[in-house]
Amino acid sequence: MQNFSFHNPVKILFGKGQIANIATEIPTNAKILMTYGGG
């Protein structure tokens, strides 16, 4: 394997009602990946 560096700054919101806080967390020019599971 070749040497490499990986940096992944991530903020994850957990818990009930957190979907309401998403809009305040995302900068206007951001690209996001949002996943959802019903379990």
Automatic annotation (TrEMBL):
Protein name (database record): NADH-dependent alcohol dehydrogenase
Source organism, top-level taxon: Bacteria
Organism per entry: Brunnivagina elsteri CCALA 953
SUPFAM superfamilies cross-referenced by the UniProt entry: Dehydroquinate synthase-like (SSF56796)
